[in-house]
Write a structure and sequence with these properties.
The protein has 131 residues and is of the alpha+beta class. The chain contains three helices and three strands, in the order αβββαα. The chain has helices spanning 31-38, 102-108, 124-129, and strands at residues 70-73, 76-80, 96-99. The protein has a three-stranded antiparallel β-sheet with strand order 1-2-3, covered by helices on one side. A hairpin with a 2-residue loop joins β1 (70-73) and β2 (76-80). The longest helix has 8 residues, at 31-38.
């Protein structure tokens, strides 16, 4: 899928609007999940068998598909940018950003909603609770 680049948060973000591949998870991320994916390769869930994904690799598999995964969960837009290429406000040793209020963000930058199924008429609550 390709998405509009007319109204996005930064010039760098335009590159993230497509081509795009959508992966779906059937649960919202927890704070523990956020901490775990920020420590790629450190294995934060090795003692929790029901949380590591079907083949034991979980979220890490997205790096086989993209250099810059992003996702929406619990009304937060999260982007992981390990190569420091796409986020306008980069922090050294923190190659990512969590936008806490995605509803407000996509009202200001409407083109950013379509990669996350908002263009299909879904609400965030519907997206987080689909099976």
């Amino acid at each position: 899928r390709h998405h509009s680049t007319d109204e996005v948060i930064s010039e760098e973000w335009k590159k993230l609007q497509g081509p795009a591949l959508l992966l779906w998870n059937n649960k919202a991320f927890t704070e523990e999940d956020f901490k775990g994916i920020q420590n790629l390769g450190l294995g934060s869930k090795t003692d929790v068998a029901d949380k590591i994904g079907h083949y034991g690799i979980g979220f890490s598999v997205v790096y086989h598909l993209t250099d810059c995964p992003s996702f929406v969960t619990n009304n937060a837009l999260c982007i992981l940018d390990p190569h420091y290429c796409y986020i306008a406000h980069k922090r050294f040793m923190k190659p990512g950003k969590k936008y806490e209020n995605f509803d407000m963000l996509h009202q200001k930058f409407p083109s950013m909603k379509s990669p996350y199924l908002y263009d299909q008429g879904n609400t965030l609550q519907e997206i987080n609770h689909k099976d």
